[in-house]
Amino acid sequence: MRPVSLEITGLQSFRQKEVIEFQSLCGGGVFGIFGPTGSGKSSILDAITLALYGKVERAPSGTQGIMNHGEDRLAVSFTFELGGSGIRTQYKVERHYKRSGEHTVRTSTSRFMERVGDQWSVIADKERDVTQHVQQLLGLTIDDFTRAVVLPQGKFAEFLSLKGSDRRQMLQRLFQLEKYGDQLNTKLKKRVDDAKAKSDHLVAEQMGLGEASKEHVMEAEQDHNKAKTEAQKQKEVTAHYETLVEHHKMIWQGQQELKEAETKVATLHEQASDMNKLKQRLQYSEQAQLLAPYVTEVERATIEVEQITQKERQLQILVTEAKQGMDEGERAYREAQAQQATQEPLLLAQKEQVSYAVKLDAEMRSTQHTLVKNEQSLHHIEKEKQNFLLKQQEAERLVEKAVQRERELIEEIERKKVTTQERETVHAASDVVNRLRSVDDALQEVVLKQQKSEEAVQMYRKQQETLLQQRQINEQAVVKTSSELLQHYDTLSGQLYICQWLKEQSVRMEEEVIAAQHEKRLKHLAAQLANNLSEGQPCLVCGSTHHPQPMIPEGDHRDENDLLERIKTVVVASGKLESELVTLRHRMEDVSSSLTSYISKTEAAATIGEQTVFSEALPRTIEEMEETLQAVTLQKKELTQDLIVLQESSRTFATTFGELSAQQSECSVRMQTKQEEHEQFLQSHEALREQKQGLHAEWQQHAFSFAVEDVEQEKERLKTCDREREELEARLAKARPYIEEQEQAAKDAVRAYTEWERKETALLSSIELEKEQITKYSRRIQEICEGEDSQALLQAITEQLAQLKQALHLLEAQRKEATETYYSLESDWRSAKDALLHAQKRCKDALRHWEEKQQGALLTTFAEVKQHIAKEEEQTSWRKQLENYHHEYHQALQEQNKWEKWLNGRSITEVERKESQQQLKKAQEALQQALQRLGESGEQYRSVLSRHERYLKLEKEKAQYEQQLKTLGKLQSVLRGNSFVEYIAQEQLVLVSRDASVRLGQLTRGRYALEVDSTNGFVIRDDANGGIKRPVSTLSGGETFLTSLSLALSLSAQIQLRGAFPLEFFFLDEGFGTLDQDLLDTVVTALEKLHTSDLSVGIISHVPELQARLQKKLIVTPATAEGRGSAVKLAIQ
């Protein structure tokens, strides 16, 4: 950052606009700002901070009392550059203020601009936005700026004595360490929240997938394959009927086409006679078209002969008349030539004499005009002489009057002068009154802020109560929802118990049926053996020959087989249903856990009850078991739908409680802040009250001769005296030039009167000479013109000469025109006779050609030819009609033969065709139903498969997020608090202190070094006393200045604005008066060596020795008693 220019108007001691061009000062190295105490040197730094941050560090409330007491407006404009060694960008900050009270101001306009090319582009135009953009651009608050960049009086050693936490926060801003502290924790928290949200979203999505197990996929696939087989079978049936319908359609279409062809042949046959007539008409038309050119040629040649004959006769008459005109023109021209040769010489001689008379007349008129002008000038000279005589008398009178007024003004100015003591007394009283009013304004502002802060605290208390009531209402809703969930959970537990009992009971029943079947098989075998036994024959099993009770065969085993199949179906279905109910119970438990996190422990305990003991009668028969299984399945679906609604309610509660917690936390923080502000306002009120009492005591000590309320009246009296004295002095300054001006006017009038007298004498002599010359001219003109006007006579002679020439030229033109007309008409007459011979020959040839072509033709006369002539379009149309007729007739015959051959005796009735279409329609409807079943089963299969794949994918993603949450949790524990930022800030502080220690050693000739202790505080190592370490508070004023200067230079050299741009300037406004001559030389020498770097240091001081040492300096001239403000002037040696 490098300053470019600063404009100040109306700030503190500055009144008129002052511009400081820093580009000439900040060329590297050190420069100074010098001036007497109170001249306004520190106001330059105030102007920079006011422009950038809208505050003056040393002013109450940042802006109180900063405007010059004689001004009503204040303006500052600061232009600076930002950038590295490559591209640099200029920015400008402007702020304008208006007076709103005796010591208070209000913002008029604020603008933050960036230079783009040759134009300034406005980035922000509101006060708060401008300050915010400056802080974002520089990365420094006003406290950081006044501790490390622009160090006003009282701020120089502040960084050296800052506490550890304050120094850490300042270093965090100066060196852009936020990204390792608050920003890093914020990003980490956001990542944790995002990961939790995504994990919860995955769980919710898994629960919302519904039936997505592998068994559901296999069942859906079987249904789809069955539907596919049925659809394929129906497609084959439909294809058979489609082929049959298409065959019938083709035969039917062939029959229709044959019928149409036969009808068309009959129609065309009826048109044959009309086509023959059209053909004959076309033949006549074609023959007439061939003979028409010869008829036209004979008629045209006959007309041409008649026209040329008539024209030849007319031209013969015109040639005779033209010959007579040519001879007459030649005779008249010869007579005109003879007349011109006789009269022209006499007229030319007379014209020469009259021309001389005209010249004399012109000279006479010119002399007469000059005579009239000279007589008028003589009259004007007499008037001017009289005017200058009057001016002389008036100027002498005004001089006498002005001298008298000058003496009166001098006496009035002496009466209006104000003494220095009187002015200082009023200024001192005004200063006390201004401070009293500032304190009163501050008290009013503090009271108003107290009221606002107290109102804000009450508002936040009410807001907390409202949020608490909303939370209680939502907790009651959660309890209600938990109660509903508990009822569903009890129902689910009962259904799960029934399902488990069904599974166990069906397994036991299956074992009993199998055992019974085994026993029946044994009995059946025994019955078969008994059936084969004969009395007296030995038994194959026991060998007995006596069989008193043989086994009788029992009935069929098919009933037991059907029962066994039904039992197995119940086993499989109950197992599947049990798995789904267990999954549903887990989902209910998850929702219950989520709900209990939003309510108190007592209420949460009430929502989680013991499992309800199932006491209803359990099914015993297979029919009751099947009915119960269907009822449980239906109820499971209802519970699933209810659970989806409860899950949505749980997510809504999560959002609502999160927002309420955030609002309660934010409300508590804001209320705490307002309470602290209220306490601060109370302390400020007490301090201002004490300050007001002190100012009243100060007023009593001065013992002014007027009351507090009369200060403004006294100031106005002084201003009135000054204003009236200035007006009188201005009038006095104008009086002396006016007197001298009037004295000079009197002298000028005397000189002008003498000059006009000389001109009058010369003019009278010229008038006499001009009158004699006019008499001579008049006598000579009379001799030449004999009393006639010379101009009229000359004009008449000239016109006679012109008329002679014009008459000759006219006759010559007429003669030439008559000759040309005669020869032209004669040539046209010969051409007409030749054309007549050629036309007669063409007429004979045309008649001969017509007779040759007419022989053997159908048409014999011109009238017949003209009657049968037709247009080319009509002939073309007739030919096309004939061609189309023959073409359609032959095509219709071919079409008839083609369909007769294709049908080959085949035919179909309308009833047969409609019957086949009806059968096809039934087959297509059946196919449509089969395809619909296939599509539904396929959609169901794809849906189940997609949900199953999605479930597996979500499971994998959930595991990844759980692992990520574990890692992020470890990172949160490591970065908890500000330990990481403190570590980086401590390392940065060590680097700064090492560089500052080197600079301090140079300034103190190796005596002192700067170190950082274990508490991150600064300590001084006194190498001259064996390296003993002691607190910085034990340093003297000069030693503190050297230490703070070393630390500030090191800090400024390492600051990177926004982490990217170097700080290229540094201002220092105190401390040099505490140094002796040797230390002062050492400090200045060290500062002068800074020209090798890009850092410019500005020193504000009134020390003469320092001013003499520096080459580049800005001299500040203090304000004057006459009302002129502070002024600046650049001085470069």
From TrEMBL:
Assigned keywords, A-Z: Coiled coil
SUPFAM superfamilies: P-loop containing nucleoside triphosphate hydrolases
Recorded coiled-coil stretches: 185-339, 381-423, 671-759, 794-821, 906-971
Tagged with keyword Kinase: no
A single MF term (Gene Ontology): ATP hydrolysis activity
Rad50/SbcC-type AAA domain ranges (all copies): 5-221
InterPro entries: P-loop_NTPase, Rad50/SbcC_AAA
A Gene Ontology biological process term: double-strand break repair
Complex formation: Heterodimer of SbcC and SbcD.
Stated family: Belongs to the SMC family. SbcC subfamily.
Protein name: Nuclease SbcCD subunit C
Biological classification of the source: Bacteria, Bacillati, Bacillota, Bacilli, Bacillales
